[in-house]
Write a structure and sequence with these properties.
The chain is of the alpha+beta class. Helix content is about 20%, strand content about 35%. The longest helix is centred in the last third of the chain and has 23 residues. The radius of gyration is 16 Å and the shape is globular. It starts with 9 loop residues before the first strand and ends in an 8-residue tail after the last helix.
Length: about 180
């Protein structure tokens, strides 16, 4: 008799079409000035977006809750890059972190059970004939369908903010 790992995992997949070229959608995920503008669900701000987008690099991002949802509490994440194909594919592992980028247990900051310590992400970017971008984000390894839906809701709100940012003219510029 053999024993198999019975731990089932669930992935979150979300696809969007943006009315912006791949180059702009790519910048929105890789340049701090952009990330500051859209990262976090509705009502949240992104006070930290220290981007080190290179294979082996790690970015530190934070989202700050609005006063009515936690009095400005900040959640930090690191994104450690595994593979980068410019303007086509980003692969990174997301971890909850302290403000210095040290990995922490998600439960220690009130994150619900079912979110693993490391969540691999794959982002794909594809040009459309109309000049827009087909974008897909896949997050791997959640331990319950409920957590997948929680993540989907948060990412959907982030992408709504990103869509609004991409519709602005001119886009943010590096300082």
């Amino acid at each position: 008799m053999t024993f198999q790992d019975s731990a089932e995992t669930f992935d979150m997949v979300l696809t969007r079409t943006f009315d912006a070229p791949v180059s702009e959608v790519w910048k929105a995920w890789t340049e701090g000035d952009y990330v500051h503008e859209w990262w976090g669900p509705s009502g949240f701000t992104a006070p930290v977006a220290e981007m080190d987008v290179r294979e082996g690099g790690t970015s530190l991002v934070a989202m700050r809750a609005p006063d009515e949802m936690g009095g400005g509490f900040e959640h930090f994440n690191t994104w450690s890059y595994r593979q980068i194909v410019p303007e086509a594919r980003l692969e990174f592992v997301s971890r909850f972190a302290d403000r210095h980028g040290n990995a922490i247990d998600p439960a220690s900051v009130g994150i619900p059970p079912g979110i693993p310590n490391e969540v691999p992400h794959v982002l794909t970017f594809a040009s459309r004939p109309d000049g827009g971008t087909d974008f897909t984000v896949t997050e791997y390894g959640y331990t319950s369908p409920d957590v997948v839906e929680l993540s989907r809701a948060g990412m959907d709100q982030c992408l709504d903010k990103l869509d609004a940012l991409l519709a602005q003219t001119p886009p943010p510029t590096d300082v």
